[in-house]
Design a protein that fits this description.
Layout: H1 2-22, H2 24-29, H3 36-67, H4 72-94, H5 102-123
Helix pairs in contact: 1-3, 1-5, 3-4, 4-5
């Protein structure tokens, strides 16, 4: 069961991170007529968040597949990854989720759910 939880969390993180990457252009365009510098900064930040979420999912998936869930290093990866996702979820809840844009409102809940999967998988 613990392995299944990690794989579910990993898949959700990879899919959500990829969705961030694919949505970059529409999100940046949604800001309307902004300066080139602001457009570049928003683009960078949006891509970085997508990469960070994908990386977290990929890292947990690979460590599980290659080392198993009982490996002490795997447990560290799961717990640190959960911590990172919770930080991103709190940041998103305090910023983007306060807008009317639905994906921003979903993000804190989805990232928290993934973190819970990782934590449950690491403690069961």
């Amino acid at each position: 069961m613990d392995e299944v939880l990690i794989y579910i969390g990993s898949a959700l993180a990879i899919v959500w991170g990829a969705a961030h990457l694919f949505a970059t252009k529409p999100v940046v365009s949604g800001f309307g007529d902004i300066s080139r510098d602001n457009r570049l900064i928003i683009t960078q930040e949006w891509i970085v968040e997508g990469i960070a979420i994908c990386f977290t999912g990929l890292l947990t998936l690979l460590v599980t597949a290659l080392e198993g869930v009982a490996n002490p290093a795997s447990l560290i990866v799961y717990r640190v990854s959960a911590g990172l996702l919770i930080v991103i979820a709190v940041l998103t809840a305090a910023t983007g989720a306060r807008t009317p844009i639905v994906p921003f409102k979903i993000c804190p809940f989805l990232l928290t759910a993934v973190a819970v999967f990782f934590l449950l998988g690491s403690f069961l």
